[in-house]
UniProtKB/TrEMBL annotation:
Annotated Pfam families: PA, Peptidase_M28
GO molecular function: transferrin receptor activity
GO cellular component terms, A-Z: external side of plasma membrane
Record's keyword annotation contains DNA-binding: no
Record gene name: tfr2
Protein name (database record): Transferrin receptor protein 2
TM region positions: 71-93
An annotated GO BP: endocytic iron import into cell
Lineage: superkingdom: Eukaryota
Organism listed in the record: Chanos chanos (Milkfish)
Residues annotated as domain PA: 233-292
Length: 786
């Protein structure tokens, strides 16, 4: 049989069969009738495929007349080769790229750009990730969670609060996060006394009680000092510094009196109480005026018999472990925050305020102080009408209680830089139902966790880790979040990329506010370009803001003390942001009351609670995606150059007065120049760098992440001045305190304290110079001040 006709692979033969072979020409042959078989070595599948193709082609060439048979052989061969190549390519491609249903184009990975990973990880286009985020976010889930969370009161330490913590932990576990855990702390919280309620009395000149003014037992100011206070009553407007200055200029006697202040005015309760005690008052009552808080129940207003509760600790965290974590194993010496008040404070309703203020006599109120209390002619006090020397006595009997706090964590681990964290958090506890205070934030947090988990299941691989946190004891001044910050402060500036607070995220649907670190402004601009306004269909949030005259002035706000984001930046040195939708025309009045329910919030939003919550979740989600996707962190390191330049110009305007006192602003000018050059140089280096160079990416990102940390003053104690940030913090070391003191050179030069100013100027100058040095990188790149 001719070898061109066929090739037959041999099967294994026994020894007997082999012996029957006949030696011929140096090779073995096995003969049978009309059959000849050559024994050959086993060939690979690839060789067989190649030879098979060659044989078929040869067959076609040698038998050109059999066209149909040739075409059939060629067709089968082509189909076999195509199928084999497709299956082989699919297996290889699947191992080097991400799989994402139909979510868009995929980018192959360069193995050399990855750190030591066992397998290459694909990177999706940002457009695909945005589409995936929008696909998986569900507004109905947000609304359902808000209703579930706010079905009853759930203060920290209560059985309801503990049950909610358990539900959230189980939800995280069902989402199959990479890690879920509970971080526990012991903290001292203050609650209304169960045995003696807070009260007010009108007393005569001898102290005999004439009338008791009843108060709701649930209304209180956490961390108020306890005991009784007695004195005349003074109306102090919003209890701002300028309000007390105006009262003094009018000759109103303040020392030994009890103040009545309005909610609002851009001031927290804690700031109002601090100003009152520094002005010499012995107590402070705080009420919601109809001019500031709507009080028509028929139009979603606060009833006139409802008070608003809030803590009065001028700080955050456990006030009995300032600067230290409240871990169970720590043995710090007993101490107390300087932010605790030394006078009692109590919230009262508009009705109680009307009863008190309508009986006062004294000077007429300054222009603009008149509220809308019914039947009240605005006078300042401090005397009561009737001339019988009556006074007001207030008694506050709150009790301190040690409570075990539980912060609930879940994380999705980053695939390239897992030790860099993008953190999202929300307060869990609430004194009332807390639809706005805790429900909205918790719902958005869980929805973002669910969405990102689903995205990971469908091909999303974040470069950096995502942390989702449910904080405990937020109503007491972000205690749970601050205690965690204090516990891990030494490492967070190296690992925390940014923090997004979801507290009070939805209080309306008209106006977006971003209380933010300046480093994140570019990030919010990129997000609001892409998200449709929840109230103005067809317009992005950015377009709507610009139509009203400039988006930055409308949206960007400074971080404030009671913000869930404040401690992260002012204490921890981490860029932070808190987003909020609210009403420009109407204020949601029920926060920190027993009326903060999902039904009232839904009524305010005319049935669009889920849609507005989803819009905010999309905004946060887009910023988190950007931070978790980009090789170089998209944070603006040049943002603080303008603040330093503005202060330098103020110094320059007063240079003559400063030089007359032997003070030179040159050191500040040099530090400001060094920082501006360092920031610009870093920005240019990043723009000209190869983003595939992971080592350089790591170096650049480390410097970017530390910018906020650089502005924490190293010259003040974290215990005495926990908010050490020279631009966002509080205290003598801050730029605001320095600027305020500098202004005295013009307004009240006799009050200018040269020694104090020298100290303030030195603190700010060397903090700014330290930031410039650190931003420059290596020591040989640092500009030397001459």
């Amino acid at each position: 049989m001719n070898t061109d006709a066929a090739r037959i692979m041999p099967t294994e033969t026994s020894g007997a069969q082999a012996e029957e072979g006949v030696e011929e020409g140096g090779g073995k042959e096995v003969r049978a009738q009309n059959v000849e078989m050559k024994l050959i070595q086993r060939e690979s599948e690839e060789e067989l495929e190649s030879k098979l193709s060659s044989d078929i082609i040869a067959l076609v060439l040698r038998q050109p007349r059999n066209h149909k048979k040739a075409i059939l052989y060629l067709t089968l061969t082509a189909l076999l080769i195509f199928t084999t190549a497709f299956l082989l390519g699919y297996v290889v491609f699947r191992g080097t790229c991400e799989l994402c249903e139909d979510e868009g184009e995929l980018v192959p990975i360069d193995d050399t750009a990855l750190p030591d990973h066992s397998a290459a990880v694909g990177v999706m286009y940002m457009g695909d990730l945005r589409d995936m985020l929008k696909k998986y976010l569900k507004e109905e889930k947000i609304e359902n969670t808000i209703r579930r969370v706010s079905r009853s009161t759930h203060p920290s330490g209560s059985s309801e609060g503990n049950e909610l913590a358990k539900e959230i932990l189980e939800t995280f576990q069902r989402l199959r996060m990479d890690h879920t855990w509970t971080d526990s702390h012991y903290a001292t919280l203050q609650f209304p006394s169960k045995t003696q309620r807070n009260a007010l009395w009108l007393v005569d000149a001898e102290g005999k009680e004439l009338e008791e003014i009843p108060l709701d037992t649930t209304d209180y100011c956490a961390y108020s000092t306890t005991g009784t206070a007695e004195g005349g009553v003074v109306y102090v407007n919003y209890a701002r510094w300028q309000d007390f200055d105006q009262l003094r200029s009018l000759g109103v006697s303040l020392r030994g009196t009890i103040g009545v202040a309005r909610v609002g005015g851009g001031m927290s309760f804690a700031e109002k109480v601090r100003h009152a005690q520094q002005a010499g008052l012995v107590g402070l009552l705080i009420y919601p005026d109809p001019a500031d808080v709507p009080q028509d129940p028929r139009r979603l207003g606060l009833s006139s018999h409802i008070a608003i509760s809030e803590h009065v600790h001028l700080g955050s965290g456990d006030p009995f472990t300032p600067g230290f974590p409240s871990f169970n194993h720590t043995q710090f010496p007993p101490t107390q925050s300087s932010g605790l008040p030394v006078i009692p404070a109590q919230p009262i309703s508009a009705n109680v305020a009307s009863k008190l203020l309508s009986q006062l006599v004294g000077s007429e109120c300054p222009r603009g102080w008149q509220g809308r209390l019914p039947y009240v002619h605005c006078v300042l006090g401090p005397e009561f009408s009737g001339g019988d020397g009556r006074k007001l006595r207030m008694g506050v009997y709150n009790t301190m209680t040690p409570v075990l706090l539980n912060n609930i964590f879940a994380s999705i681990e980053g695939k390239i830089e897992p030790d860099q964290y993008i953190i999202m958090g929300a307060q869990r506890d609430s004194w009332g139902p807390g639809a706005v205070k805790s429900g909205v934030g918790t719902a958005i947090l869980l929805e973002l966790a669910r969405t990102f988990s689903a995205m990971v299941e469908n091909g999303f691989y974040p470069r950096r880790s995502l942390l989702f946190v449910s904080w405990d004891a937020g109503d007491f001044g972000n205690v749970g979040a601050t205690e965690w910050l204090e516990g891990y402060l030494s490492m967070l500036h190296l690992k925390a990329v940014a923090y997004f607070s979801l507290d009070k995220a939805v209080m309306g649907d008209d106006t977006l506010s971003a209380y933010t670190s300046p480093l994140l402004v570019d990030l919010i601009e990129g997000a609001i370009k892409q998200v449709e306004h929840p109230k103005h269909t067809g317009q992005t949030i950015l377009a709507h803001a610009e139509s009203q005259g400039g988006w930055k002035s409308k949206i960007i706000k400074q971080l404030y003390l009671n913000s869930g984001a404040y401690s992260f930046t002012a204490f921890g040195g981490v860029p932070a942001m808190e987003l909020r939708f609210s009403e420009e025309a109407r204020v949601y009045p029920f926060v920190n009351t027993q009326l903060d329910s999902a039904g009232r919030l839904q009524e305010l939003l005319q049935g669009r609670l889920g849609a507005v919550g989803r819009t905010l979740a999309e905004l946060v989600g887009l910023m988190v995606l950007k931070l978790s996707h980009d090789h170089i962190l998209p944070l603006d390191v040049t943002c603080y150059s303008s603040a330093a330049l503005h202060f330098s110009s103020q110094l320059n305007q007063l240079s003559a007065q400063l030089q007359a006192r032997g003070l030179s602003p040159q050191w500040v000018f040099s530090a400001r120049g060094d920082y501006s050059r360092a920031a610009k140089t870093l920005q240019e280096a990043i723009q000209n760098s190869d983003i595939q160079d992971e080592r350089m990416n790591r170096l650049y990102n480390t410097r970017i992440m530390r910018v906020e940390y650089y502005f924490l003053s190293q010259y003040v104690s974290a215990v005495e001045n926990p908010f050490r940030h020279v631009l966002h913090g509080r205290g003598e070391h801050t730029l605001s305190a320095l600027t305020e003191h500098l202004s005295l050179l013009r307004s009240h030069p006799q009050l200018f304290d040269e020694a104090r100013f020298r100290r303030q100027l030195a603190f700010f100058t060397w903090t700014l110079q330290g930031a410039a040095n650190a931003l420059s990188g290596d020591v040989w790149n640092i500009d030397i001040i001459r």
